[in-house]
Description:
Blueprint: E1 4-10, E2 30-31, E3 35-36, H1 38-46, E4 52-57, H2 62-71, E5 81-86, H3 99-104, H4 107-113, E6 117-122, E7 125-127, H5 131-141, E8 145-153, E9 161-165, E10 171-176, E11 192-203, H6 204-216, H7 224-232, E12 238-242, E13 257-259, H8 263-273, E14 300-302, E15 310-312, E16 315-316, E17 321-323, E18 326-328, E19 331-332, E20 336-338, E21 343-345, E22 348-349, E23 353-355, E24 360-362, E25 364-366, E26 371-372, E27 377-378, H9 382-385, E28 390-391, E29 397-399, E30 404-405
Parallel strand pairs: 1-4, 1-6, 4-5, 8-12, 14-17, 15-18, 16-19, 17-20, 18-21, 19-22, 20-23, 21-24, 22-25, 23-26, 24-27, 25-29, 26-30
Antiparallel strand pairs: 2-3, 6-11, 7-13, 8-11, 9-10, 9-11, 28-29
Amino acid sequence: MAGILAMILASGEGARLFPLTETRTKPAVQFAGNYRIVDFALNNFVNADLLKIYVLTQFKSQSLNLHLRKAWRLSNITKRFIEPIPAQQRVNKNWYIGTADAIYQNTRFIKQNSPEHVCIFGSDHIYKMDVQQMVEHHKNKGGCLTISAIRVAKEQAYHFGIIEIDEDGRVIGFAEKPAVQDAKTIPGDPDHVLASMGNYIFETKTLLKELYADAKNINSSHDFGKDIIPKLFANNAVFVYKLSDNFIQDEPAIAYWRDVGTIDSYWEAHMDMLRPNPPFSLYNKHWPLHTYHPPLPPATFSESTNYVTHITQSFIGAGSYINGATIRNSCLGFRSHVYQDATIDGCIFLSNTKIGQGCRLTKVILDKNVEIAPGTIIGENLEEDRKKYTVTENGIIVIGKNSKVGF
Length: 407
């Protein structure tokens, strides 16, 4: 679509996903075996045929840059591109201070492309959106900014920018991460609020004007939610686009959206995918999920005289070898090797893991290149597990990259 430029914010440190973000930025963390978190935002643009995309990177970006190069490289014959832009301190000596500052420091790329509208999207959520439908809504309303939004439970309001709208969908109130008791609920629905998804479509002239003014404000935190939007909607036409209005053929649910910014939410999103009737489909032929697939053989399942392989409600990545093990409600990434008499339940393995004979793992996340010694039991005694591993409030255990456990 002519006149549309996308800028995807992929510079987040992802401290709440530690230790999965110990060596990589949050958008580069693997998800559902085959994918990286950033793939979902990119697919939302690629499947909408919006292919002028800059991906803004900053923290621990090597893994992300490598993935973008392998999975998302476009031919330079046309004017379409997916291009990573590292933080370069072009306009000052600061790294990105906030979301607005990240775009401000890269306004030269907006000017080079001369778009009519700029899409500014986050990169760390699991959802599907035909962005072209949001663009059409933005153009039809004729406002200077459109914010994508989703209905969430009121008790979660403190995580989001909370929006009030009139009958025409125009923003009449905005509060960034308010206390739960102060959050304005949806009229007629006292248990839910309308929350910003952190995705914006700006009219370009307005965006540049606001970014330049914000950059001069020494009292600003240089963030769209905290600074730009509260100032803008008061005197300008700012509208909301609801994710529930977005239609994708054959998708099993309306408005599935997950923030995977914590270990618990990351685990829960995987469990959503593994349900018998999942709210988010990895198999929708009308919305293919592009990513990089390494050259690996199919997963192999074998048995011996004494041990039978039994797998239910699970994803098993290519190159994996399962020999006489039981696997339930789990996601095993590329090159996951699980040996005889092991039981894996509610687990997520990123890739290249080896699980020895007789192990029992329950609600365990393993980063890349982890090896578990035969007979190791993890997840059945959280008190003991906390002495050795990262364990969340909800009892999810995380073992960091390159670990060897029980040897």
